[in-house]
Each structure stands twice: as C-alpha cells, then as structure tokens.
Write a structure and sequence with these properties.
Keywords: DNA damage, DNA repair, Hydrolase. The structure is a single chain. With about 300 residues, the chain is α+β, with helices and mostly antiparallel strands. Among the domains are: about 80 residues, no CATH class; about 120 residues, Orthogonal Bundle (Endonuclease III, domain 1), CATH 1.10.340. Helices cover about 45% and strands about 10% of the residues. The protein contains 15 helices and 6 strands. The strands form 2 sheets. The protein has a 4-stranded antiparallel β-sheet. The chain has a two-stranded antiparallel ribbon with strand order 5-6. Strand 2 and strand 3 form a beta hairpin. Helix 5 runs antiparallel to helix 9, helix 5 packs antiparallel against helix 12 and helix 11 crosses helix 12. The protein is globular. It starts with 8 loop residues before the first helix and ends in an 8-residue tail after the last helix. It binds a DNA duplex (13 and 12 nucleotides) through helix 5, helix 6, helix 9, helix 12 and helix 13.
Length: about 300
DNA sequence: ACCCAGGCGTTCG
DNA sequence: CGAACGCATGGG
C-alpha cells in the first residue's frame, strides 16, 4: 500500500461497520469478510491486518482447495479501501482550512472507502436519495438479497451486488411492492438496461475527465448532480468530486461551525470552493465526523 | 402531527 | 431561467 503511515485498518473498519443492515461485507474479530470476483469467479475472502500493519493479508475462505488470481483480489481490495492513496497533501491542507482543521488528527489513517462495482456506485445513490439512511439501507438490503448472487459459507450468507442484466430484466412493478417508489423502480431498471447494453461501462467512463464523466452520468434519468458526484467519488475516485447537495455534508458543516441552521447553498459553495482536489476526502471525513467516535 | 431524510424531475411564474 | 412542488415512507 501507499503511505502506510497514514493507514488505519481500524478506522476503515469503523466506517464499514456503520450499518447493521450491511450484507456485502461483515466484520468478524477485527477482520473483514466479503464475496468478490477473482478471475471471474465468486470468492469469499477474509482481509486482516498484516504483521507490521503496513499491509493487509487476504485469505480465501471459499471455495477451498482452489487457486485464485491473487492479483485480482489485491486489486479489488486496493480499489475498495483506496490503498493506493497518499493522504499527506490532504492532511496538510486540512490544517489551513477552518472547516477541516482537526479532522486529520481525529481520524488519521481513514481511507475513502469506495465501490469497485460501477453498477453499485450508480444505483446506490438512486436507492438512497431523499430518504433517511436507515430506510435507505433497508431498501439496499432487500435489493441485494433478492437479486444478488448468493452463497452460504459456514452458515453466513455472502452476496455479490446484483448484476445489471438481472435488474434490466425486471419490470418496475417487481420493485414497488418492495417499497421502492415508482420513480426509483423505473430509474433502477432503466439504468440497469443502459449498463447491460454497454452504453455505460467501466470502459466508457474511464477515458472521460471529471466534467465529461459527470455529464455522462447526469444524462441518466434519476442521476442528478449529487448522485453523479457520488459515483465519481466512490467509483471513479475523482478527488475533486464534491457532494454540495448532500444533507450529511450540510449537517456536518453546521455542527463543526456551530451554525444555528444548515448553511445555505451559497455559503456552502464558499466553504467548499477552496477544497478543489481535496473535496472528495473532505466530504468523506466530514461524513465520518457524524459517526460515533472509535472508542464507544 | 410535523418535519426532515446522504434528491430528482417536472411544472410554474 | 430559478423557484416551487410532488414523490414515498421511515424516523425523530
């Protein structure tokens, strides 16, 4: 990994454990378990802190007795936990910004936990927009359990996020009884169709710069500026992605500055304008500041 | 009962 | 153009 002095597995685990409705990964005895694709095949892996804390160790829990491309697993974890990041510049910047000062010391080593799956990174904002987080996680759990590839290992259910082709084959009427709004159900099926047909893919997005990628995503129905920037932050990892319209960001700013009410959009633009290439990490650390501290 | 939620698309003035 | 409004429903 890069910048091991600024890596804390514990901080990353704390963020990953924020919802008890999570079903794409589990935390067991300070280790991280999930299913992922290696060599195109589903594998259940356990990720643990290495001996000197400067690296992570991945163990294949299932299927047993089969060799899997180690590099695929390593690449996945690197992208998931942003192990290739270098936080030095961001930490230096936080000391110069009144809104961010102190975040580096409080949460040192927290990496911007991402989403290596494009379909997940595009559809999770659709699922979660406008509703409270608790209900959003409930809907996500239903979505994954109903439509994701599933495998049970040692009595635990592991899932892959649903494949676009599976969702593309649905009608919105399948989703509305599961308490997705009509609009969300429609956006999910439409987005899945666009991805299943290859009109939106890793390859389509990869060559685009920040503005072009944002425009491509916003062209999808149900994806506005907030959702597009979410995808650009969590999947594409554009460092300048900023979630201006985010209620969580607005609450974190209010809290840190002791404002009587949430900041106006104009005020928020003032606060965030200097962030530039630090915006994605700034937002993520401010989200972290809304979670309980580590030692509770 | 009321307001807000990690918004977005549509309609209105 | 920007502002206002409807969506759906859980949670405080």
């Amino acid at each position: 990994m890069n910048d091991p002095a600024n890596f804390s597995f514990q901080e990353c685990l704390h963020f990953l454990g924020r919802s008890d409705k999570e079903c794409l990964h589990y935390i067991v005895d300070g280790k991280l378990r999930r299913m992922l694709l290696a060599g195109g095949e589903p594998v259940v892996v356990e990720i643990a802190q290495g001996g000197d804390a400067a690296y992570l160790e991945a163990t294949v829990l299932a299927p047993a007795g089969v060799m899997f491309p180690e590099k695929d697993i390593q690449d996945f974890v690197t992208r998931w936990l942003h192990l290739d990041a270098d936080l030095g510049d961001f930490y230096a910047y936080t000391q110069t910004d009144p809104l961010l000062r102190g975040l580096a010391a409080e949460y040192r080593g927290l990496r911007l936990v991402g989403m290596p799956d494009l379909f997940e990174a595009v559809t999770w904002p659709i699922i979660g927009q406008q509703i409270n987080l608790s209900f959003a996680y409930t809907l996500r759990q239903r979505f994954i359990r109903h439509f994701g590839y599933h495998q049970q290992v040692d009595g635990t259910d592991y899932y892959l996020y649903p494949h676009p082709a599976v969702i593309a084959s649905l009608t919105p009427e399948v989703l509305t009884p599961m308490q997705f709004s009509r609009s969300k159900a429609q956006y999910l099926v439409e987005t899945a169709t666009v991805m299943a047909s290859g009109q939106l893919s890793e390859q389509v997005l990869a060559p685009l710069d920040y503005a072009a990628a944002r425009d491509r995503l916003v062209a999808l129905k149900g994806i506005g500026n907030w959702s597009a920037n979410y995808t650009l932050m969590k999947y594409s990892r554009f460092p300048q992605a900023v979630l201006l319209e985010d209620a969580g960001l607005q609450n974190a700013v209010r809290q840190r500055l002791q404002l009587p009410a949430k900041p106006s959009m104009a005020a928020l633009q003032e606060y965030t304008r200097p962030w530039q290439q630090h915006a994605a990490y700034a937002v993520f650390y401010l989200w972290r500041s809304l979670l309980p501290p580590l030692n509770v």
